[in-house]
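Subject: sequence -> structure tokens, single chain

Hey, anyone have a minute? Need the predicted structure for the following. Not urgent.
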Amino acid sequence: MYARTTYATGDPAQIEHCLEGLRTEAPKLLADSHGFRSFGLFADREQGKIAMGSWWQSENDRANSDSHLGRRRTELLTPFADSILTGDFEIAAFAADSEQSSAAAFRLGRFMIEPDRIDGLVSRFKEDGLPRLQDLSGFCGVAMFIDRERGIGSVGTLFADRSALAASRTPQSAARREAVQQTGMRLMCLEEFEVVLLENNPDAPQSQ
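Reply:
Had a minute. Here:
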């Protein structure tokens, strides 16, 4: 599957109105789009940050969706956002717990890596990273996004609540340290968000 991400920063005083518009309109807009699989909306209200990710069955579905979603997305974000950044990615691996729909906290780590080492990183994540994350208390779901051409990607992890998110920091840090040492991956940033909305197509798979 494939993903489009959006990252917007802006005035914290304007973020709630923006989130309400996205929360209200996004489900209907996406449900009417061919190939739609999943959507996540995340926010850091205090600092004024919004992160979004939509999942699509194919690259063509993702590309075609932007013809009618792109303009409205910008309109909804503009009153709040100083900066809007979008990106297209391959979903290299993911897993969801039965409690994913009730997740309340989200951690996002963005990384860079030499393109010729991406396959090794993905294999290691599937064999070692996923099982370790799934063993964490309060784990609800995780996905790895990659851009093979640019050698960048991200790992997003969902947790039941802020307490579970906080408790996961040490073990997840240990796993990242090992990945850095073994694959040459370099972490660019690490952020934590509140889950505002998770919307899933009921026919979408739960793991890959």
